[in-house]
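In the current project phase, the collection of sequences with tokenised folds has grown. One resulting record follows, to show the layout:
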Amino acid sequence: MTQTSAPQVAPTHSPESFTPAPLAGQETLAGDVKQAIIWRSGSQIAAQIVSWSSTLIVMRLLSPTDYGLFAMSLVMLSFLTFLNGYGFASALIQERDLDRHRIRQAFGLLLSANALIAAVQWLSAPAVAAYYGQPVVADMLRVQTLIYISTPFIAIPEVLMGRRLDFRSQAVVNLLSALTGAVISLLMAWADFGVWTLVYAPIVMFWVRAIGLTILARSLVWPSFDFRGCGNIFRFGLAILLTQLFWLVQTQSDIFVIGRNLTPHEVGVYSQAVFLATIFYSRFVPPLNEVAFPAYSRLQDDLPALRWAFLRSARLIMLIAAPLYVGMAVSAKPLVATLFGPTWSELPPLIEFMALAMPFMTMQILFSPALNAIGKPGVPVRTAIAGATIFAAAFVGAAQFGILAVAAIWCVAAPLLLLATVVLSRPALGIGLADMWSALVLPVGSSVAMGTVVWAVDRLLVSTRLDALPLLHLGLLIAVGVVAYGAVIHATDRTALGQIWALIRRKPEAAAT
């Protein structure tokens, strides 16, 4: 689970933080927000295209062992990164009258926190390398401490730009960073730098962002280490840390466990299987949650309407997610051969298991915006604790049976986490298992039918004839899947096809009504 991202915690604002503005001011603000969303969303999409394109090429040049070693170092890097103080910087957004002294205090706090965790990583690197039995991991971890030093020069400018809704400057820097990282990755991989390609490219990206944001935001100040009066910053930052801590346990426990029991080659294969299997739920569902949250918030005083909106939203999202994951499972072999090449021929069996677990993971993360909208943020924290417990225990138990068992255990842990989420959320939302089944029977049943058709066509007609032509093989399976799924949906619920198209186009009403 190394590629997933921690849940983003948006700053909360008390009602008294805002005062009514004239109509013209409201129109100006609305225009600024619209432009901010366009720049933020557009730059994210463009950066992802650049990043994924370079990743697919680099994966053909590096070995699974390289990715395995990098995944081992990433466990410690991820755990310490959540202590880097980003939440403390975000607290500045809530300041009514932000002055230069408060910025200097936040900058000093970030410098102190990141210098400390950099020192911890530097000193702990040999012990971590000994745990995995891979001496090179120590050298990697020590070089990666450069990432922490860049954090204060990224966090402060981002907060200041965010306060004035200047996402255009951030977009420019982020795109430049993505392009620089892609070029560095390709050049180093081509020059046979091996695992160091994966170490140095992110460092360069971080520092390009740090320098670019600092210049455009004009945010360079002299730090203050007098932290008196910073109680609000500490409280806000600690609240974010608590939520992310359990999320990190859930998402990093697999590599932590298998890194000691399996070879770097096996760890590399596993980590990239996670990367491919989790792309949709970790990259595309969170933006839909961002649309859903304000819609749910409008219904917080009408719980029956909110329940209806949640179940409808879940049904629509799963109408896309479920067939995508089932299709990934039944076409894993040509999919991997097309995207990654023959070097990664061990991926398909792992992806077959993980892909079938992803509908449960997707459904589980849809609960958070609804719970936050009705003022129950403690429930997502409890579900994060449940996730950390379930997945950590599952990986510990499966690791002794090999990499395939670790992949297969997802099919046990993911449904258990969804069950725990439904049980924990029911007192607040009033949504039980029967409600969930009523909403999801169409996407689940249609996806299973589609997967059965694709599997049968592949085994009986396609596979043996097109093994040497993976792109054509994949294209035919996708065509069969689209036709089969469309036919089943059309025969069962014709209106669902229009709803799917609206959701793909990211219309807010599709996700929230």
Summary: The mean pLDDT is 78. The radius of gyration is 23 Å. The longest helix spans residues 23-61. Residues 106 and 307 are 40 Å apart (CA to CA).
